């Protein structure tokens, strides 16, 4: 470990290949993405074949020798780089000195649905990667068994989304790219009641709870923060539900609305 | 309106005075803060004496003539500035051309408590202004009747907090700066059960609901995202409650945890 060569040039082919993964087109081609920090490395190591390459700095190696050893034992190439190169790769202000190149981990929709999940989260037309990552983290916490990003949503492998998910991207089956038109039918076919969360809903979340609706296996659909869900989606779901606003706020942000809806389902499914 | 002079220099005394309000020390001295965009101007105009000065661009004046007229009719100085000066003042990437200089609107703790509120939100040791603003917006939506920032928390008049609150800073009584040591006693004195939200809590939120605890008038205390609430606080509250984690996420972020707790109280207080 101590004798490892250090890559100090941004023009090194391995560094250039990793840097390109900041762009969606290259991620798609290579089916790999970047995840920074010791937690991400730990998560990726738990998935067989999940960690493709590990970039480290000398300092991070001495702080996390167990992770470097585990990567080497798993046959993962470990590349030591200078602090300057790491700063370029990590896309964060204070890089943590460990950067994982990970294999894509999304699964087909059929795989996510075959275990007959009781709580599923759908992100439709969500464009802000930070919001998407926070919803992913919240969905994981609330016991959602899968998170589905429709084709019009942000890429879950976007660096900001990976960071905001705080590891949850690795925790539960993520589905990428289904078209909404066919997705709703597939969700219903899997026995799920499809509920859209939207300020335009006639039924409040409390009414949905009181009516026993949330005790059913449910797929929650969350839309774009600025303009909600388009009519074509609202028409095809089983119901449109709004989180009640008791004060004078005009709306809730996407991640907080999702938290309230998903935790309401978690409670309803466990107490009914 | 058309004949108004345009200030084009960052060295103009009025512009310099407004720019200084980006710093907390100057805000405290002047007891004024900055809020950007048409919504903020509308909110500030609704509070008698709330709008101290209005900076506009020619373009924004033609887009929002009603706001400029309303400000002038209220005797508020309207200052037209160039796009370049507005960009400096607004601290945002795409400034909206309207910037309100507002008078501080926080109230003493005794004022916030004298109406015997049933739901109060306390931010203790919260340092990230974006998180604080999102909690303020969520508290407003959930019907919290007051939001209290302790002396160790971020300044609610920080530009990022004002923006993230999406107008809610103007909607409900905000209290700034009480020390936690005396605050808890004052909240209890006002008939409030003081609950801390913390991952270390023995009682889950569901247990608190089932036990009828949330039907009581409640002050929720939320702490710093990274290290939760200090022991000195946890010892003095009536109970420490944790939001259950059903999946593999390690924790929830501050704003989503607050959303789940506050909406649980809103529902419990309305259905019991």
The number of distinct structural domains of chain A comes to 2
Structural class of chain A: alpha/beta
Main CATH class of the largest domain in chain A: Alpha Beta
Q: What portion of residues of chain A is helical?
A: 40-55%
The H-and-E topology of chain A, N to C, reads as EHHEHEHHEHEHEHEHEHEEHEHEH
Chain pair forming the biggest interface: A-B, 39 and 39 residues
- Summed over residues and divided by their number, the pLDDT of chain A gives a mean of 93
CATH architecture of the largest domain in chain A: 3-Layer(aba) Sandwich
Number of helices of chain A: 13
Largest sheet of chain A: 7 strands, parallel
List keywords for this structure.
272 residues, homodimer, 41% helix, 60s Ribosomal Protein L30, Chain: A, 7-stranded parallel β-sheet, alpha/beta, elongated, 12 strands, 5-stranded mixed β-sheet
